[in-house]
# Entry
Amino acid sequence: MFKKTIVLTVCLLFLLPLAMVSAEMSNFSRFEDGVSIDNMPVLNSYAGNVYWVDYNAGSDGNEGTFKRPWKTIDYAIGRCTASNGDIIMVKPGHSETIIVSGGMNMDVAGVSIIGLGEGELRPQILFSTVATASYSVSAANCSIKNVIFDETGIDGLRGLYVNAADFTLDSCKFILADSDGQALTGVQMTTLANKAIVQSCEFTGTTNTGTAAAIGIEQDPYNIEIRNSTFLGDYSSAAIFNDGFGSGVPIGITIDGCVIRNYQTNDFCIELQGASTGIIMNNRCTSDQYTTVIDPGSCRMDGNTWFDSDAIASYDNSAEPFFDMTEKFVYRPAANLPATTTQNIFAISGGPVFVKGIWGVVGTVIESKATTIKLTMDPTTGADTDLCGTVDMNAAAAGSTVGLTNTFATAMDLSTDIGVSTADGLSFVLPVGTIDLTTGSTATGTMSWYIRYEPLMPGAHISAN
# Structure
């Protein structure tokens, strides 16, 4: 046993210098035939080269290894091979400043930058007082993880400019505003930023004005995802904003699981142009006005909630701090038409609602005689207002549908085909009160009714009468 121990020790002492030489010559110890422990291979999960950067102890004249790192990230990017899966590891405490537009440019495809360290020890990228100083992403399939971007120095324009597809921003922190300076836009995505992903990031600011948006989306990139991120600041446009960057709109955008607080009075947390498509879901938004929380464009809304920032100082709102802003449908079962009179079909209570559509469906055939109907808003306070002109339901067959148009003075659309009549562009705010159905004659027949809406404040809802 003693002899075996001596032999093993001698072998290890012989192999150790070889391993050390290999480690010094490259980023990691590389063995052409692989490495195994107890016949179990040690697998490599990355395909490309791994380089190291440390501004404090590195030099761009080094080899870019762990012991001899490069000094700057941009120099390391220039040493990478396109589409090779190369990784740049940035050591804790690293800090460098960008002083010109595109002063740091991810212009090599497929490069990943990974910052090491926790909290304020994470690598930091600062921006000088030159307003145009920026970090550009101009090559596809790149990513940045666990890096702090302090953009308070630029006091204008944008810090991170994404101009290529399939970019991922993961677990990064953006400091956008303080008393000395405010970036206009934290991250700006162009029409080429298709399939960009922002996840688990933090965008922080103060009540100092100057920042328009944390994330600004230009034109019409598709399939952008913004998930599980936090936005805190004074945004004169919105934390996530598209409604001022030209005529294009994002297609298939996903905004999911974010916490957003906008200090700006009467401005949005999320604001997209009208034709934007995608889904906005499970976000918790805080602002001072329920009417300017989320402008979804044409995106589907699901599970979003709003907290009234003004309530923080005035009363304890902890029992019901959020409310359900999701779109809702209410159905009123088929009932006989009122006989030359008015009948309440829906009641609005608890606050105003944003109505997106009202439809009626004939159950049993309407009697063959002139039978005009119309819908009227009867508010609790104020005068009645017709929601449409009259439409003649004379002999309308079972399954015929009516629906409001996008003009109050116009009669409802009547379709004798099976299906629901739609009214493109219909949307209006209705106060507390009732929606009434009025008929101009006595006629037999039944109709059921549907309404689609979103509540605009806690407790606001519609019920069928």
Remarks:
- The CA atoms of residues 56 and 94 lie 6 Å apart.
- DSSP finds three helices and 41 strands in the chain.
- The first strand starts at residue 36 and ends at 37.
- The chain has a mean pLDDT of 84.
